[in-house]
Amino acid sequence: MQEIKNYVETHKQRFLDELFELLRFPSVSADPKYKGDVLKTADYVAQKLKDAGAENVEICATAGYPIVYGEKIIDSSLPTVLIYGHYDVQPADPLELWHTPPFEPTIRDGKIYARGACDDKGQFYMHVKAFELMMETNTLACNVKFMIEGEEEVGSANLGIFVKENADRLKADVVLISDTSMISMEHPSIETGLRGLAYMEVEVVGPNRDLHSGVYGGAVANPATILCKMIASLHDENNHITIPAFYDQVVELTAEEKQALNSAPYDEAEYTKDLDIAEVWGEKGYSTLERTGTRPTLEVNGIWSGYIGEGAKTVLPSKANAKISMRLVPNQSSEEIAEIFTKHFESIAPKNVKVKVTPHHGGEPVVTPTDSIAYQAAEKAIEDSFGKKAIPTRGGGSIPIVALFEDVLGIKSVLFGFGLDSDALHSPNEKYDIYNYYKGIETLPLFHKYFAELSK
Ligand code: BES
Ligand code: MN
Ligand code: MN
């Protein structure tokens, strides 16, 4: 442990400088305008893997953005850790809400502010530096493979193909991912589940053109009003989702599982204060931790129609649109849910409008084991590094690759995240605490050490 701390102490400024350099690339995968930057980011990641001591580093082309691969195989009798992360980031909009520019990382109050600081550049780069540390101090205890992709934030559409085609190269005993959150640094935790996702876009079309709202209003159904009514009907008075068969495959937690989940620290007053809301909301009969971690949900992500420019325009719009996504839990299937959503949404449309439903990307839910050697290694690493026992929690977010790794390669994951829910992922002023960054770099080598020991 002291050797680890010494190495981090000696190289701490460079570790930060390199992360800053990585954060300066605007690697927004959703916006084609950044294509060149995304590709340059892949080059930088590949170079840094090489510098840290990885071999067979390759920028693997896909139909979309490339996957950066690198490995260090020291002994085929040792276990292999496959490290997954993503170098792409969410769009930074709305830009005017950032206190400092999103791609000029800035330190305030011990925190790094930048798009991708926590999700996921700051987090996957901890692995690159922990790997460098183990190489330089001759303490690498497991074989290591890196797979850092560039399309996570847009659904990882090409990753499935890559994983299938490279099943041999990716063979490993565990997938290690830092792309999730801890409760807090005082309450270190390990996520043991992720929700799935079914993302849909809907369009409601009324008259064949925008109309004068005085001349036609009252006689023609307004698609914006109809869309709002249709969306409002998707939850009942208990905030239960009304789509028939939506909950059919959902597994209820056992009383013990519920109890364990709800024993995690959660302060509702703090939660509502942080968000500036008077009270929480959700499905009747479930706690906040159950609602976000173990229950499926439906959210409107965007909604638009008619005139939204300056001033007023009296118009009855021809159409209205919305993006709607559903978070899924075991054993729901994103494909099935997309199908029943489509059927239901079409069925509730009144005759005076036409409805079009288009599915976007999806991802499957997962629960990761807590009785595996890998989970125990993560627990021991946290205990050493934090002096506390890790609390298992269920995450509300999605990382579609986790279920894929399990289905295609038969490898389970450990979600070893060091972020915080309050790090403003996907929001303006995303941040990552420098303390968490170094803490992660110090804790990860312990995982490798314990994983090798426990695998014997
Ligand atoms: N790192 C997040 C997922 C996450 C965040 C999991 C916090 C648990 C805690 C990831 O980059 C992400 O944002 N995933 C998307 C899904 C994807 C298909 C766009 C998400 O959850 O919305
Ligand atoms: Mn992420
Ligand atoms: Mn993300």
Automatic annotation (TrEMBL):
Name assigned to this protein: Acetylornithine deacetylase/succinyl-diaminopimelate desuccinylase-like protein
Taxonomic path: Bacteria, Pseudomonadati, Bacteroidota, Sphingobacteriia, Sphingobacteriales
Transcription regulation as UniProt keyword: no
Biological processes annotated in GO: proteolysis
Domain named Peptidase M20 dimerisation: residues: 192-351
One Pfam family hit: M20_dimer
GO molecular function, one term: peptidase activity
Alphabetized UniProt keyword annotations: Hydrolase, Metal-binding, Protease
